[in-house]
Each structure stands twice: as C-alpha cells, then as structure tokens.
C-alpha cells in the first residue's frame, strides 16, 4: 500500500511539471523592405512554472537568436543569450530596446499584415522540452 502511494505521488509530480503552461500575447515582427535579410520579433511571454526558452525557429529564416539589448558605458549593445529564463507566474516582455528575437537569412520579404510562424523550444526544470507555435503579425516600424 505504501508503495502504491509513493508511485502515485511521483506520477502526480511528473504530470504537474509536464503541464507548465507558457502563453504568448501580442506577438509581432517588423516588416522588411525587399532584400532585407534580418528582422526582429517581439511578444509578451507568461509561464506558470520556471522554464527556459532555449531556441527559436522560423520557416522564413535560416536561424533565429534571442538577443538582449542594454546600455554599456552609455552605448547600446546587443548580444545573443543562450536561453531566456521565465519565472513561475511572471511575464517577460520582448520589446524594442530590451530582449527580442532576431531572425537572420530571411527567405522572403515580410510584409505588413503577414502572419509569420515562430516555434519556441521550451525546457522545464526537469530538462523536458516542449514546443510552442506562435504566429507573429508583421507591422511596419522603424529599423532595429
Ligand atoms: Cu538583435
């Protein structure tokens, strides 16, 4: 009987961890001009558990990176970060001037109104990975 309870509890913990829910709001991407190969994507991400976004993919680009912008000796610098931490019950805003997603090697022009698919690869604290499909709406805005 004790063994049964133990197994049941273990299963419950695993199930709870696997159902960490990540939601995305207001996903948008900067529209591009013809021949432009790079653009940025932005969104608000909320998670119910401590997870990391470890990779981003899009069918319209060769590769995507998570970038962080910050002031360094009065100069705005941008660097790629290996992962983006999301805290349980908190939201992280990817916005111009802060964290953002950058797409390199665009295969096509991104026109205002287009819906661009992005896949977020999410890893929980047990190193289990799930993906989340997001559609970012293209908007015209000043260059990155
Ligand atoms: Cu960037």
Main sheet: strands, sense, barrel: 10 strands, mixed
The value of Rg in angstroms is 18 Å
CATH structural fold name? Immunoglobulin-like
Q: What is the CATH architecture descriptor? A: Sandwich
Q: What is the 3D form?
A: globular
CATH class: Mainly Beta
| Ligands and ions found | copper (II) ion
Structural class: mainly beta
Unreliable stretches (pLDDT < 50, length at least 5) are none
SS element count, helices: 1
Whole-number count of domains: 1
Quaternary organisation of the protein chains = single chain
Distance between the termini: 62 Å
**Mean residue pLDDT:** 89
Mind telling me the CATH superfamily name?
A: PCu(A)C copper chaperone
Give the beta-strand count: 10
Strand fraction band? over 45%
Binned, the helix content reads 10-25%
Order of helices and strands: HEEEEEEEEEE
